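$ fold --in a.seq
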Amino acid sequence: MLDSKYYEVTPPRSFAERLMVRARDRIYDDFIRICRPSPDETILDVGVSDVTGDAANVLERRYRFPDRITAAGLGTAHEFRAAFPRVSYRQILANQPLPFASGSFDIATSNAVLEHVGSSDNQRRFIDELMRVGKRVFLTVPNRFFPLEHHTAIPFLHWTDRSFALACRLFGKQHWSRPENLILMSRGTLARACPPGTKIEIGATGILLGPCSANLYLLIGGPS
């Protein structure tokens, strides 16, 4: 599976997986509370996982109107399609325009994808594309100031790029220290990825620990 590397530190039925499930359930609750999607509104979910465990694809698992969701991902998604037969699926290419007309969806959303697109320029293009196809945008990223780094389970040393790179070398996780694989996100990094002059809202979600909360959300546009 393309996405199995993102779940290396959260094996099934582990404490880490339960923690991730709790965080993603809170993200889903905040999505519903903030975006207030109506039953007839269409939702595009960009970057769904080909891993179909309890910690993945929370929108598809919990949303009451799955036929209103179009999911997009890099893989062929055989398991995803089998798990969520009422959700439409489109395969997309990394760092390429989304294969949808402008304004096709009421809401464009994405969870834990922006940090993996490879560069700050790619991040800006990714958000531009979500804004192009969605009338409003809600995306989330891991917060680098959560005490435990999400992809490596390295504590605290990910708060600076230098100490994170050193820790990744020590623990044999150099893959995650390369920007083309992971850009650790803060409120400032997230704000800088947005087009200048765009009205945005950034807040904490997931496991709430004040400035060290597990995740950050970005909202562009509000409920209609």
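$ fold --in b.seq
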Amino acid sequence: MPILQAQALRKQYRLGEHTVHALAGVDFLVEKGEFVAIMGPSGSGKSTLLHLLGGLDKPSDGEVTLAGHRLSILNDNQATLVRRRNIGFVFQFFNLLPTLTAEENIALPLIIDGQDMRKHQARIAALLELVGLTDRRQHKPDQLSGGEQQRVAIARALVTEPAIVLADEPTGNLDSKTGTAIMELLRRSCDELGQTIIAVTHDPRAAAYADRAVFLRDGQIIQEIKGAGADEIGQRLRLIVNAMEELQL
């Protein structure tokens, strides 16, 4: 059974007197342990799709099933609980709390869920090691570089061992070298931890780290490119760039 499934997903907005069809019937499956990149031009529906998949917004029609939970039949409190315990979020602008240390920011989802941070020290320490920040654990965000802050955000997304991690332009606010390091880290979390990841990105170099790239335009999936494993990033990059040229993206 897929870890995430969207069926006939539609989302409409009212913009003045006009109706905007942000998503126009999207069917989408993600298997456990898969790394998927969502690409497309501005206004294609990428972020809308990510928000619906993560239960941050409700579709106008269609269904999202996350880790066996049909989101449409949940009330707000139930949806919040499912989201908190099954999804890790990584945002473009990090969204770290400035008064907390790196270690405390990583532990925040556990604290919000009412768990004792002290009982999860081994998990937090392992994640600090994974993201290469063991020696920066007591530093606050303003003492960290942008890349280090994003590493903290990734560790925070992984701390609850979520069914899926959703990343919205995770390299969009970083230089190319740091962005590459972040995508390598996400790739490692997929390969070494079996983490399922969906990342929205406009960057073909970032998308090449995924197992599969899905292209959206006008609220519909128009093409997919599948890779053959983590060792063929260069091949996937060439396929993605060629597809973008053909699709005029």
